[in-house]
Structure to design on (145 residues):
């Protein structure tokens, strides 16, 4: 996903009169721009950076849904809509089987050490933005059994 595509989709939603979708996409564009400014890459925004920003927003939207009280169904519906729109743009994450295959093929030497800290330190940068940290940790734990 590129920032240009996000902007085009935001403009298309505005032209279509879909205020809710436009608001969500506008927030995504803002989140990407903020991250780009924080990392001093405003002129050259990579797809990886866009993916990280979208993943962060997706996590925040999921947390909003989880913490919303059941007595507020209208708020929960709003949060769910936001989550659904963001998830359309979120990068596909690897599942546990894909993580396991990746580690077996690319990190066999590190896995042989049986040192979870060292393994995680090596693996996390390789899979950042491609897989959930909890899933990576679970797969590494399986290797150490």
């Amino acid at each position: 996903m590129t920032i240009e595509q996000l902007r085009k989709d935001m403009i298309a939603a505005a032209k279509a009169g879909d205020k809710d979708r436009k608001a969500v996409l506008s927030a995504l564009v803002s989140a990407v721009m903020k991250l780009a400014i924080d990392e001093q890459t405003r002129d050259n925004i990579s797809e990886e950076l866009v993916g990280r920003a979208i993943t962060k927003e997706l996590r925040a939207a999921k947390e909003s849904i989880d913490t919303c009280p059941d007595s507020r169904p209208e708020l929960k519906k709003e949060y769910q809509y936001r989550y659904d729109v963001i998830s359309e743009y979120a990068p596909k994450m690897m599942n546990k089987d894909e993580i396991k295959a990746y580690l077996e093929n690319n990190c066999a030497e590190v896995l042989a050490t049986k040192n979870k800290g060292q393994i995680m330190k090596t693996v996390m940068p390789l899979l950042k933005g491609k897989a959930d940290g909890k899933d990576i940790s679970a797969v590494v734990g399986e290797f150490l059994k």
